[in-house]
């Protein structure tokens, strides 16, 4: 198995400072032709390693339809991510293995209205799916993106959100937790805005949500209240992982391995799992 | 040495007087001669308590766990256990008014073969030094003596000692059971397994074992009470007492220090100094 | 019935062992610091293949090393170079002597997880190139309960060659797999009597087994345990039974079926090694995520994970109990917690005799 | 104490370890900010030569030196460690070096007990005015470690090749 755990080296093409503590790293494989062989679908994750520091699990934040490079958005949270933030710059090399895990049920989403609910760094996996859906625009109906963060400075992908806003068929709603002087848009936590401002249509709509655990918890309750069926709500779970191969025994919730059977789950599946996440 | 009945009486009395929330003692495993520590919360379970010369584990270890934190605890301590309790009190890890300590005038505990453990044979303070109530007749302090294993090993030369300890470190499986069962290791995050990449060696190699065991024993130098919880917990049966006893002896001989945890308010050799400390090894 | 059995005596068995050690790379229980452990041996005098006590550590490290190098890297101005380690995942055949039934069985259990989805080729290679020679225990230890689990101890085919010490002083050697059969061919068994479908030998072996099976003090019905445990995830009982656990991880390290590992890097300046080494779900930081969220922050939850993983989750996923009843964890536990006692009493079954 | 056998330098603790011909010891110097670091600075500004084997780490006080640092140094790269602080009584923090002295003795003795030569870790008191003394100390430590041969603790084998 040791060979499976050896990463492929990537070069950092670009570093984008999204917020004070989130950076997006645009990566490209060093080896010729590897980029073509590296195929992923929205929702999958990679093991990102800073050699000498350790490995971390990050979802791929860009879509495979834009394939010259791929993005990982990294929030400074622990030891390795702190090393990544301080130690990595454009032109540096990192190790990548993957992609692992399952992906958003793209076939099920076809012909449906899509409501994306994201919070903080949770927009990263959604961004991959949003890009994918924009590139396959004809397959899907209306798009609504609800995105919240603690402050306006904590909103990721500001440039890209501005681009999305230019597209009339995309409805983008932003919110922050506490009022700020220059902020002209919604104020309030995501579930509240979801109920009071977005007021989504329940019919023929799939909801994809990702964010901090506490946001997911209340968003799921709100969605329940709004009348969404659990099978129409899709979320991604976060668990500590180390191998990504279903061997290291870290990410299981009951007999489900998040790294193999997840990280994408429907609310219906989540309800069946023991309460340990 | 059998204080089963007395301990049951005390525990029942403490519960009925509502002085404690939990009583930490020993019970039989139910399948062999050995005993399991037990945390009794329900007065109905008091008859499960036992105490005899198979009551080996140092119960002060349970004072650091989330299960007894903030609770009023009744506790059975032998001589060595009481010394670790004394140190925990001095280091402000437990509050004295939350404890009810049943001290034992210990006659030594025995292993599976019925043989007294080495630390019991060499015990200097068999009587509990902290207690609210004492069981048994105090025997008085013993004489400090150099550990037999240490004497034997110290007489060997450098190459032999290095080879011997290399084998010890090689056989360490880095499970950290020694640290977890040590009552004096209460740090929320231990320096030998901080998940910080540059300092911690997660790998299970000989050098990592050298690093972990040496650092650990030096952090316990002057604080080890020789209860040998670590050694009894070690699945590889490593002679961990060698490291601790050696440090204890160096401190005892060079700084004329008392053994750890004997006097109230004494934090151990590394927390004080004397102008007369040996200086000849420094250039 | 088509069984081949080689019959010999104690001296013949020693000759057999000696021949193996002389010819192959051999591992056998060796006494170290007052306990037995599998070590490479070069002479029969240094080891004890018939050690009455099971090894403290299981044979797991021979297949799943305590610390395996994943890769090395060196960084310089031209970039980072990653190289696979030169560690040999075993290419020549090796023999393990004196492996107990429970240890041998554990490999069958581990096969399931290692051959699932991503296949662990190194593990497979080690498995394929190892001949396991196992002597059946004569007597169960205080903590053994292998006969209570979901495998047939008597007809177990996890070992390649089975050795049974008959009550009559005779030793019966039976190949249990094709690998074992071809291993026994040749001059290893020249000095033995070769019998086929011999009723007398079968009877003697059966008799030995019956005596062995009768010596078990612990008996439980694993089906009740599986079923009982699967229903009590939310039970407050877990808090009570895990009360006196000191969270020392020893049980997972000595367990022959625990297979969790961690990946860690070590570096010196511009070079480094990445290791894969054992870990335990009893560690507080096992599931601690960056940012501070921990799904199993308290002891009883970690404890529950361990118990249920062994008897419920693994069973659901792979159809086997992740426990072989060897009792190693109970022997190693500093506070003598018995997994048997816990799992059999938890679902309110009381089978301790 | 001569570790050389047949003109080859071997480790004094583990004779099977032979130093390569061009071997130079790596010595970690942990110096207190107020005296020894200033002293080493003076050595440099006075243009006194001392062996280049030492790698200097500056700490606020010699009592900042946890025994862990010494163990860690030996485990990773160092063949020897030198810890240097203010003279007794001169500590910037009044009594830091008195505490440190106790720890050093215990660490040194423990390492000796577990099979490492006493000279693997050495201590000195060097004040800010003692530039020549610092050079002498480093020269002596380097000389000592060279005689002891490579330490080659278990870890190094993982990184070579």
Characterize the quaternary organization of these chains.
heterotetramer
Cα shape of chain A: globular
Overall SS class of chain D: alpha/beta
Q: What is the CATH domain class of the largest domain in chain A?
A: Alpha Beta
Strand order of the largest sheet of chain A: 10-9-8-7-11-12-15
CATH homologous superfamily assignment of the largest domain in chain A: Nucleotide-binding domain of ferredoxin-NADP reductase (FNR) module
Strand content of chain A: 25-35%
- Class from secondary-structure proportions of chain A: alpha/beta
Outline:
The complex is a heterotetramer of chains A (277), B (283), C (353) and D (161). Chain C is α+β, with helices and mostly antiparallel strands and 353 residues long.
Keywords:
heterotetramer, A: 277 residues, alpha/beta, Rossmann fold, 2 domains, 6-stranded antiparallel beta sheet, 31% strand, globular, B: 283 residues, 9 helices
Task: List the topology elements.
The complex is a heterotetramer of chains A (277), B (283), C (353) and D (161).
Chain A: E1 8-19, E2 22-29, H1 34-37, E3 45-50, E4 54-59, E5 70-75, H2 79-87, E6 93-100, H3 106-109, E7 113-119, H4 123-135, E8 143-149, H5 158-166, E9 170-176, E10 186-187, H6 190-198, E11 205-210, H7 213-226, E12 233-236, E13 252-253, E14 256-257, H8 258-261, E15 264-266, H9 267-272
Parallel strand pairs in A: 7-8, 7-11, 8-9, 9-10, 11-12
Antiparallel strand pairs in A: 1-2, 1-6, 2-5, 3-4, 3-6, 12-15, 13-14
Helix pairs in contact in A: 6-7
Chain C: E1 4-9, H1 10-23, E2 25-32, E3 35-41, E4 67-76, E5 79-84, E6 94-96, H2 101-114, H3 121-128, E7 130-135, E8 161-165, E9 170-175, H4 178-184, E10 193-196, H5 199-214, H6 222-230, H7 237-241, H8 250-254, E11 261-268, E12 271-278, H9 299-318, H10 328-332, H11 339-345
Parallel strand pairs in C: 2-6, 6-7, 7-8
Antiparallel strand pairs in C: 1-9, 1-10, 2-3, 4-5, 4-12, 8-9, 11-12
Helix pairs in contact in C: 6-9
Chain D: E1 4-5, E2 8-9, E3 27-32, H1 36-45, E4 54-59, H2 67-76, E5 80-85, H3 96-113, E6 121-125, H4 131-148
Parallel strand pairs in D: 3-4, 3-5, 5-6
Antiparallel strand pairs in D: 1-2
